[in-house]
Amino acid sequence: MNFLQFILNNRSQVVELTLEHLWLVGISTVLAVLVGIPLGILITRKPSLSKPVLGTANVIQTIPSLALFGFLLPAPWIGERSDRLAILALTLYALLPLIRNTYTGIMGVDRSVLEAGRGMGMTDRQLLWQVELPLSLSVIIAGIRVATVISVGMATIAAAIGAGGLGEFIFRGLAMVNNQVILAGAIPAALLAIFADFGLGLLEKRLQPR
Question: What is the spatial distance between Cα 158 and Cα 57, in angstroms, rounded to a whole number?
């Protein structure tokens, strides 16, 4: 049985696992955006926090995925369900590009533009929402793009703790020493990452300041 035949014969399961994969990636990316972007804004306002915040995010990135799952397993409520555990781990992994790009984008705004805004009587909050964030939006979207692609790849490991997703096929194929089953998980996951990267890349280009 070749790869295409396996996909056709198991299309309902492929669709189900793909939707599970999208659910894990979507929820974790949204949570990472809700945490990472405000943290990136915070460290532009309080530079003394930049090293500890970015340092912590960097340390999280260095922890192997299975080890991180193990660290989070004893956590109350989170460790009770594998999908919660996977979503939290994916959220933590996605934080670094979001924090770093938000910080870089805002700090890269031309200081003369900010001075002009202050000269017009704009408050710090108005400068943030009307000047800094719009001008740095393409850089922030680039961070979301990187975080999403990371999450798509990392979500395949979530199958190791029973969280579902396309990693189910990969781990099953490894256990069976069956390349068709491995490819049934690896190729759709790779396509998801490519589509996410391409779509967010187009959005990033459209939002670049002219």
Answer: 20
Q: For residue 182, give every residue at least 6 positions away whose Cβ sits within 8 Å of its Cβ, in sequence order, or none.
A: 169, 170, 173, 174
What's the gap between Cα 154 and its chain centre?
A: 9
Structure tokens at 66: 């299975």
DSSP letter assigned to residue 171:
H
- Within 126-193, strands assigned E span none
Name every residue whose Cβ is closer than 8 Å to that of residue 200 and which is 6 or more positions away in sequence. 141, 144, 145, 148
Tracing tokens 């912590």 back to the chain, one arrives at 56
Distance separating alpha carbons of residues 72 and 70, to the nearest angstrom:
5
Q: Give residues with Cβ within 8 angstroms of 102, minimum separation 6.
A: 36, 37, 39, 40, 41, 44, 136, 139, 140, 143
Banded model confidence at residue 83, pLDDT cuts 50, 70, 90 = confident
Structure confidence by residue, pLDDT tens digits, 100-121? 999 999 999 988 888 898 888 8
CB proximity list for 4: less than 8 A, separation 6 or greater: none
